[in-house]
Amino acid sequence: MTPHARSHADADPGARRVLALASSALVVLVAEPLYLLVDTAVVGHLDGAGGATGAQAGVPLAGLAVGGVVLAQVASLGTFLAYGTTARAARHHGAGDRPAAVAEGVAATWIALLVGAAVVVAGWLTAPWLATLLGGGGAVADAATGWLRIAVFGAPGILVALAGHGWMRGVQDTRRPIVIVLAGNGLSALACPLLVYGAGPVPALGLEGSAVANVGAQAIVGVLFVGALVREGVSLRPVPAGMRAQLGLGRDLLLRSLAFQACFLSATAVAARFGAPSVAAHQIVLQLWMFMVTVLDALAIAAQSLVGAALGASSVGSARRVSGRVTRYGLVLGVVAGLVFAATAGVLPGVFTPDPAVRDVVPQAWWFFVALQPVAAYVFALDGVLLGAGDAAYLRLITVGSAIGAFLPMIWLSLALDWGLVGIWAGLTLFILARAVAVGWRVRGEGWAVTGAA
């Protein structure tokens, strides 16, 4: 063990270090959901700007919901690049070997570029089929197809950014990710309303303008993360052995992501069968849910980085102290969030759409969303602990089991029995509760705390 590693082993990361990592991660994490909320609000007001009524009301927002959930699944599939890279890079960082930690980022970036290119081709070709499958055909599917065929070109940037976040979190670099993400998403947030509605010489592109702004954000962020690797001075050659090691851990994380995908794609598909107002209402609450998941995940990322470094330096005690802290902080944050969303139930949905038909459906999902905040905080905090420990196989097992045993049956029963969004969000509730029991049991045991470098 190096002197650097011994210092990690002996040190208690403390509340200040946990909160410092979490706060920097929070800035990075909320930038993308905040941009998506701006995007949702801009597109949600296209009806008023274009005078859409009757059957066309809510179609642009519903099209964004259907197309957006497909693109979100690309990011969800790619989370193994972030989480797997963080776990492996943090172990090297804890052992005092920064070049090896950065090399994990190089391997992950090559994987991101190769997978991203394949996603562009597959996404463009299958966009009409996916939009019809999820949107039920008609105007909503047409709108989703047009949006998705543009937005899919942002996939390589999305995946490269995930790889970049992974290695930077592993080495506990808290400043550069903030600058990179704010640069890309900030410029695109300014461009989105301009491209959607037009101004002066800029034509009004409508819903497609939203997709162009998305691609711009992802391209800028991806290029900046590659530049950060270049400045580290390590070899940028693809190393097959390193890529295979990444993919080994990524296999379980990918299967876990596929379980999430099956759930949320099914939820959107079923919501679309209840009509444009239902899927638009689902989009609003789902985007707020994703925003809060991202906020709560800031603590999980701090846990992942610190737990990985502690176990890399053979300090199980430090890893357990991190686990306790992030769980307590997460529960407090979840309770506060639930109270805020309960108090704003009458006004917040109106920010995203002026359509009364959509706002009337929102309460069917809203109160599930409110009640789940503390439980979700607990789950995501302990997810971060187990991800930092590299316990991906267990997380894959419980996620797939909870999806098959809880979420998916409730979603399809909702369609068969006409339960609407109530059934969909009841399924999400069961899914989160099952995972809460499973991660709590695991962290109380010893099997996850395996020490040593990656």
TrEMBL record:
A GO cellular component entry from the record: plasma membrane
Stretch forming the signal peptide: none
Primary site of residence: membrane
Membrane topology term: Multi-pass membrane protein
Molecular function GO labels: antiporter activity; xenobiotic transmembrane transporter activity
Location(s), subcellular: Membrane
UniProtKB keywords: Membrane, Transmembrane, Transmembrane helix
Coiled-coil residue spans: none
Listed PANTHER family: PROTEIN DETOXIFICATION 44, CHLOROPLASTIC, PROTEIN DETOXIFICATION 44, CHLOROPLASTIC-RELATED
Family in the record: Belongs to the multi antimicrobial extrusion (MATE) (TC 2.A.66.1) family.
Stated name of the protein: Putative MATE family efflux protein
